[in-house]
Amino acid sequence: MTPMQCRMVRAGLMITTRELAALSGVSSNTVVNFEKDRSVNTSSIKAIEQALLNTGKIKLESGGVIPQEATYKNQLLASIERGIADVNSGRTHSTQEAKKHLGMA
User: Fold this and answer.
1) Domain limits for position 42
2) Nearest Cα to Cα of residue 4 among 27, 32, 37
């Protein structure tokens, strides 16, 4: 996680640097220093990152930070697109197959 990503996620979650520090187990100065791209030890950065992940609101992927809601929407859209492709190809699903396809079974 980059300092800018941290700032953006924290702002999106509407939590203060003090609140993030408390969740992370680091000082608020450490959070501020990280967000300002100052020298912070790796274990503190990992603690901050983990605290943000523990909110359940974001997910880290190789492309960066993704809101968890967006990840779910992308999965749902992909499932719908696969279903449309199946219908267009003449393949149909039972209710149980459809639930499994959507990750609901």
Assistant:
1) 3-55
2) 37
Q: Whole-prediction pTM value?
A: 0.61
Looking at the 3D structure of the chain, how many domains does it have?
2
Question: Residue 65 is inside which H or E element, if any?
Answer: strand 64-67
| Greater model confidence, 78 or 52 | 52
Domain with residue 12: its CATH number is 1.10.260.40
Report the helix count and the strand count for the chain, using DSSP H and E. Answer: 6, 2
Q: How far apart are CA 23 and CA 78, in angstroms?
A: 34
Measured CA to CA, the distance from residue 13 to residue 20 in angstroms comes to 10
Name the amino acid, one letter, at 11.
A
Instruction: Kindly state whether residues 69 and 42 are assigned to the same domain.
Output: no
